[in-house]
Specification:
Layout: H1 22-28, E1 46-50, E2 57-60, H2 61-70, E3 74-79, E4 86-90, H3 92-109, E5 115-120, H4 126-141, E6 145-151, H5 160-173, E7 178-187, E8 190-197
Parallel strand pairs: 1-4, 5-6
Antiparallel strand pairs: 1-2, 3-4, 6-8, 7-8
Length: 200
Amino acid sequence: MAKKPFYRPRPAAPRPASSNSPQTRRQQGPASKELHAINDRIRAREVRLVGDNVEQGIYSIQQALQMADELELDLVEISPSAEPPVCKILDYQKFLYQQKKHQKEQKAKAVKVVVKEIRFGPQTDDHDYNFKLKHAIGFLQEGAKVKAYVFFKGRSILFKEQGEVLLLRFANDLEEFGKVEQMPVLEGKRMIIMLSPKKK
């Protein structure tokens, strides 16, 4: 009777360490090298710990890393130029997320200035004037600035006073919706006036 072959059971593969474990966090290093040094990437022998979750003071790097391990958080160098460097114990990924969120909010708050241009001739008729006035009101109500100008072609530069009167009339008719940011000024062949929307 033939013997059955003997199979040696394969050893179970070691379970990967949890991504939240201090050891794994140490191996991962910082998510973005240029932002902050964290954990074992901090080269100082001593660091100054600050923050709410620790007793503030100067510690050896080994003590600081041990404290971070015990809290299952990261040791993050926030002021490398200080002597000794200033560090905090915190969740680095959460810290990066909050920073990114804050930057996004700041960017959203930044007002983008839109400038709409309206061109006149020195002898614009009433129909054309009223048409452009209506557009300017809409632009100002939308929060855009209005750059209105009279373009002088050829010898029409002789009518520059007429162009100035036209722009001042334009600003006066828009008084309810915008304020004059720059009075009529001649730049080359154009006489320009700038209006910005009134704050609601």
